[in-house]
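Protocol step 4 of 5: obtain the predicted structure for the target chain.
Materials: sequence only (see below). No template structures provided, no constraints applied. The aim of this step is simply to have a reference model before the mutagenesis design in step 5. Sequence pasted as it appears in the construct record:
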Amino acid sequence: MNRKICVVTGTRAEYGLLRWVMEGIRQAPELELQVVATGMHLSPEFGLTYREIEKDGFSINRKVEMLLSSDTATGVAKSMGLGLIGFGDALQDLQPDLMLVLGDRFEIFAAVAAALMARIPVAHLHGGETTEGAFDEAIRHSITKMSHLHFVAAEEYRQRVIQLGEHPDRVFLVGGLGIDNIKRLKLLDREALEDALGFKLGKKNLLITFHPVTLEHSTSAQQMAELLAALDRLDDTHLIFTMPNADTDGRALFSLIETFVATHPNARAYVSLGQLRYLSCIQHVDGVVGNSSSGILEVPSFHKGTINIGDRQRGRIKAKSIIDCQPEKEAISNAIRKLYSSEFIELLKQVRNPYGTGGASDTIVNNIIKFPLNMTLKKSFYNL
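Step 4 output (structure tokens):
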């Protein structure tokens, strides 16, 4: 009897990382793929990105509505409660043999909590990482403790999962999933990208991806204002904005970006670029600016620079192509000057991505096929 593997996805970025794992599960004769879409995928405000999943040929078995039209702390907490209810019903219907999730968001926390109560083992991807400027940090480690198989992106992260009491036999070092997308997708050339964006690139181009800093009170909008003040000086640079995630205070960032773009003909904003356009943008821009994990995990594989603003990604392993700076106008301006300096451009040629060279998706699928699940639920705390 085939193993039923339930993959849960709540955001466009997360689905982009999961796509080739899902394809591998779908193609494996020993496995049966189940897909549950939730969170931002089902929201018109964030582009109804479940359609991208279907466009790639996947059937969505269940849609779990949970995202309230609120970005307050109370709204997010209520969304988690709705998610727990919805996932309880979905898992009762689907009866998977294993749930597979990625990362650290509140939608995934709700899904895994429901799986724990339903006695369904969980495989967790990209655990063991640290992001000290966001509550994703605590959510990620909590998911680790509710999970039974772990697929991590670096040896340091493997050691951290073991440090949390997980048995080494259940922790697999596979590398970063985003690199598989870079290797497998046929990225758009410059002209095709401009057509897809409806926006002409300039002599200089930057991709801007900035998300709320969820562990700091009332600073996300202030930090975005500092970033926009630095970008306001770049009349000779074309700016491509991706909109922030559905996190606490995200709407304030939406409004600031929309106001900026409305008064700057060299800038354009997109609710959802999708993986093809997003990675194609990275290929053709001079660098990425913001605080997104993609700037750390994937951009180094393009030998492009990342300006990493503030503490949201503090704690992650970083390539030499990452320029850390404070969320202040002058610090960001200085980082942009460094990005375009001849010394830094020369350094980029030698950059190595610490998250590997690809192949994570196939390794994950092979381990899911082989690992015995009959005694997986019962875990003993592994003492160092």
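Step 4 remarks: The chain has a mean pLDDT of 93. The chain is about 40% helix and 15% strand.
Proceed to step 5.
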